[in-house]
């Protein structure tokens, strides 16, 4: 009996020694469980900031990058509207390059009308220079010159004030440039009004005709610049996709339009640092909790360490086909990263790590 009791520990030790090699041959599946949020592969957003700036952003969620970004600023006090085209609202489908709407700026249109009025006036001045004019026209031109002078002096004071504020870092460069632009326009207008009056009072001279023609050329150039800016107010979509009514907005901006490419979806999911050695590009990812299992693949592993619930993790991106639209943007899901089969010994080591870190 004593011999039997003494053999038991030896038998147990021998059993485990024989079991250890076996663990290297037995294969078991290994998965890393996580959760994440589904996003469209590409999304384009048109937004309006609190100061009226129109922000145009194209985001690639596969790499979390922004391939395209632009911002269009407007003068303070301008009434800016975005008008969607009705057919876009009805269909909901967008093709890259489609014109989806138009930005309407009241000040820009007023500026264009003002320039066109100046152009017509200069054309009349040219005609007057060549043919002569009545005293009534001369008196009207004088009054117009006085009015232009008053407006110019007012705008000059505003510009000088803006210049002082800009030098003191009170206002932004864009606001200073807008004040300077308004000042230059009023300066041009006083020059036009003065030239008009001088032409009417001095009679037709070739030099005066040439001066009026130069003014006409300058006005035409300004009109062309404004027309180009207005042309840019027609908004086209950089991607094909679907108009989304979701307002998943991470900023304080007002969303005017959002177009998503959802024929494929990406899953953004955190993986804890101690599991990174087992994660590589191309690895299979399975989503289970949407009615049936869907299979995707890892396409991107971020370089940055994030702190989530006081734990260190790295965001991993997987891509899934979504031809029937089953996957919806912003859907939170549970996911499994499929490492494949590993030996029982490796499995025991990895599970020990999981227990230690949790």
UniProtKB/TrEMBL annotation:
One GO CC term, this protein: cell envelope
TM spans (from-to): 7-26
Coiled-coil zones: none
Chain ranges of the Multidrug resistance protein MdtA-like beta-barrel domain: 292-340
Keyword set includes Coiled coil: yes
Pfam families on file: Beta-barrel_RND
Cellular localisation: Cell envelope
SUPFAM superfamilies assigned to the protein according to its UniProt record, in alphabetical order: HlyD-like secretion proteins
InterPro entries: MdtA-like_b-barrel, UPF0194_transport
Top-level division of the source organism's lineage: Bacteria
UniProt entry tagged with the keyword Transmembrane: yes
Keyword tags: Coiled coil, Membrane, Transmembrane, Transmembrane helix
Main location: other
The protein's name in its UniProt record: Multidrug resistance protein MdtA-like beta-barrel domain-containing protein
Source species: Alkalitalea saponilacus
